[in-house]
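Researcher: Good morning. I'm working through a list of sequences from a screen, and I'd like to move beyond sequence-only analysis. For each chain I'm collecting a predicted structure so we can compare shapes side by side. This is the next one on the list. No need for commentary yet; just the structure.
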Amino acid sequence: SRRRVHGGRCGHRFAAMSTTDKRKREFKKEPPADDEGGDHQAKKRRSRWGQEPEAADPAVVPAPAAPAPAPVPALSFDVASAAAATAAALEKAKKAALMQRQIQEQLANLNKLLDTQKKAPKARALRLDAQGREVDEQGNVIQIKATDVSTLKVNINKAKEQKMTEVLKQASKELQADVTKLPYYDPSVPTQKGERTRRGFQFVEEGTYIRKAEQVRRRQGLKGMEWGQRKQEERKDQQDEGRAALNPNLIELGPISRMAIKLKAHDSIPDVEWWDVPILKRTDADNGVGADARVPEILEEKINHLVEHPQPVNPVGEQPDPGAIPMFLTAKEKKKMTRLRKQEKTKEMQDRVRLGLVPPPPPKLRLSSMMKILGTQAVADPSKVEKQVRQQIEERQQAHLERNEARKQGKEQKKEKLKRKIEEQTAWETKVALFKVDDLSNRQHKFKVDINAQQHLFTGCAIISPNNGNLVVVEGSQRDIKQYKKLMLRRINWTNSAADEEGANESNETSAAKKGCYLVWEGSVKQRNFRNWKFVEARSELEAKKMLADRGVEYYWDMVKTYRDPDADM
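Model: Good morning. Structure tokens for this chain:
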């Protein structure tokens, strides 16, 4: 009742515990049942392995006074449980033995390591002489070989390649040595003995082939001489045989070897060479040199301080020097060259400032960097500083415009540049365009044809012959000819006549329909046939052809006269 006073779950738990404790106490107090009604003995627990408990100690448990035979109780033994328990015990024993053996091995290794450290030699003492060289105990200098240790990636890779090459060579040698032992080896198939060596350049000394050619010529000459010598010997033998037949007392001595050498007949050496004759005095008697040929008289008036130089002749087959090949830079390379030039110019200016030759340039002020550069001065009077900064900005802008104006080219310079450019374009090839114009009486048309030809720096002429036809021929670059064709064939309205300018009311529809400009021929020539551009009026066809014949292009007039518009037949 006391435990239940707290109530709740705690009270029920204590109540349950009290009930369980009461039952245990009652179970302990109950004596073991005895069928014979003998003395009560204490209950013995069985062993873990299902064996019967050992007998109690007689000193503790008194023997009964009058033992009576008791019936043997039946034993209950589980075989499966006993086998499982036995296997578990054996497994534990094995694990314990293995762990003990590992511990013993680790202890043994540790002892060996300690013994090795104890036996390790001590560090050698460093001894140095007066010069700072390392010496041993006897005072001898120890020579230390320097080892090159390279950390460059190139040298490391090279060492790896050499090592790999040696390994591959060793492997190839082993493979070649053992190739005969392989099961698929065929002795009838030849194997490569070794690697083919790379053939290098074989340089020939100067004059080698000349000497060989001379040897061949000499050999051929000797062969010819031997053949002639053989013929002479045969002829000599025949003569000797004939003589021997005539005179039996002659003794044959055998053929005598002789070499036939042909000598070229030279003229007699003159007393005076031909190049010395002009400066020697002549006489009418012998029509030659002076009376005394051994001591000729020299005309000293023909000798002066001038030296005669022969005219140089260009060697045949030798091409002229083409000169240096021009190098064209890319846009990226041009930017790089500009950047390098600016860096050199800036560096030179800095060096001059450091040497004190020129004063340092003032700081480049901007409105954004005004406070940072001037500092306290800008804080004290900001309006004045801002005015000063704006004035500097205007001065820099004006200087920039002046530099651009100074770099601009004038009219003459632009014209020279255009002329030089056109000459470069027409150096190898010149384009020619030949036009036929029905009517060139309009002053506006004349002006356009003339001024455009002058602006494009054309060479050629425009021949106006009212009764025979009009011709316009121009020579220039391909780009300029293309623009001039657009002018002549598209931009100019050739239907406007001179009568329209004067304000006449006559209808010219019939004549206007026939007026126009036609491209007769367009092609290329090697060089220009005309020297300049001009307008010419020809009274007759003969006069027009004569003007063109002076330039060697009289066939232009025939082409214009025989031209027929393809659209006229449609």
